[in-house]
């Protein structure tokens, strides 16, 4: 997401606009200022970055590495291993150990090992890694990146300075998206921009991927086009579904929803998620809302277990029909 766009035009936008330096990063100012202080004072500790995807963890450490090392030094001083690489105990004892143990004769400073998606590493590999970290702290720094902190063993956590990267706020995402839109000359409506940040849910990578795919598929990035591109139910479709389940009889509601699902290629799980947030927005008596939320939670659990969508759809409609009867009793 840097301002340098001289690279290959075929690059995905998430790579083309990846920040090149710490100043380009759009959020987590407190974390970045702390790390900048570490770098300027040459007192960088071992780091542990954790948080949801697309929140700037990898971008931050790569920007730090580019700030510390010149382009010539980068390849010899930085070892980056991702989840796609084999990172079992053999790699820790082999590649990582040999990289960390070799000293830099002609260059001052330390080497940097970046272990991306470290929560995919086995417990044995993590246990082997803690000894390597301890032994070669003098000339090597480690940066461990993961989505789930609980999957990193406590012994590794205690050897690192931890930073949590939370989901990005909408006001942080919009200026960067507007910058990419202006660079790429994309036609985006106001509703399209709102849909982008809503669906991204604090994930900048997801926002850019949706923007790129929608701009390639349609001339204009509108709300409907964004939802169609990602196969997400449209807001008016959800309104129709809630209207059918509350006002039509069971058979009509079931047939209408099945037709809509087939035409739009919708998954019941996506429909359920949107109906859930819709129920929170509409004014319902407390006991009716609680009944619906409880039933929808059960349906989601059963869907996650791999049950039949048709049977679960029937269950969803039945829950709303009972809610309708409860509302009718209230009115009497």
Automatic annotation (TrEMBL):
One of its GO terms (biological process) is DNA-templated DNA replication. It is found in: Nucleus. Coiled coil: none annotated. InterPro entries: AAA+_ATPase, ATPase_AAA_core, DNA_pol3_clamp-load_cplx_C, DNA_Rep/Repair_Clamp_Loader, P-loop_NTPase, Rep_factorC_C, RFC_lid. Keywords: ATP-binding, DNA replication, Nucleotide-binding, Nucleus. One of its GO terms (molecular function) is DNA binding. Belongs to the activator 1 small subunits family. This is Activator 1 subunit 5.
């Amino acid at each position: 997401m840097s301002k340098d766009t001289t690279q290959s035009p075929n690059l995905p936008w998430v790579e083309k606009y990846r920040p090149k330096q710490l100043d380009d990063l759009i959020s987590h100012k407190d974390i970045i200022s702390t790390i900048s202080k570490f770098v300027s004072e040459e007192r960088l500790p071992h780091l542990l970055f954790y948080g949801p995807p697309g929140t700037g963890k990898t971008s931050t450490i790569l920007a730090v590495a580019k700030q510390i090392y010149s382009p010539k030094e980068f390849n010899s001083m930085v070892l980056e291993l991702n989840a796609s690489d084999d990172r079992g105990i053999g790699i820790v004892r082999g590649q990582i150990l040999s990289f960390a143990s070799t000293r830099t004769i002609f260059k001052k400073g330390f080497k940097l090992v970046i272990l991306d998606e470290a929560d995919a590493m086995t417990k044995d590999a993590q246990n082997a890694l803690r000894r390597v970290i301890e032994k070669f702290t003098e000339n090597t720094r480690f940066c461990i990146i993961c989505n789930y902190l609980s999957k990193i063993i406590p012994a590794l956590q205690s050897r690192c300075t931890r930073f949590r990267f939370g989901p990005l706020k909408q006001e942080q995402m919009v200026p960067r998206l507007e910058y990419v839109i202006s660079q790429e000359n994309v036609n985006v409506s106001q509703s399209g921009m709102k849909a982008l940040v809503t669906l991204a849910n604090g994930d900048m990578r997801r926002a850019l991927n949706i923007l790129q795919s929608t701009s390639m598929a349609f001339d204009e990035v509108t709300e409907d086009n964004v939802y169609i591109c990602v196969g997400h139910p449209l807001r008016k479709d959800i309104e129709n579904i809630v209207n059918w389940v509350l006002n039509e009889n069971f058979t009509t509601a079931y047939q209408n929803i099945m037709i809509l699902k087939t035409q739009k290629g919708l998954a019941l799980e996506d429909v359920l998620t949107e109906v859930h947030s819709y129920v929170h927005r509409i004014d319902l008596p407390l006991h009716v809302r609680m009944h619906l939320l409880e039933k929808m939670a059960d349906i989601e659990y059963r869907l996650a277990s791999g049950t039949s969508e048709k049977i679960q759809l029937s269950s969803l409609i039945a829950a709303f029909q009972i809610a309708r009867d409860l509302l009718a009793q209230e009115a009497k």
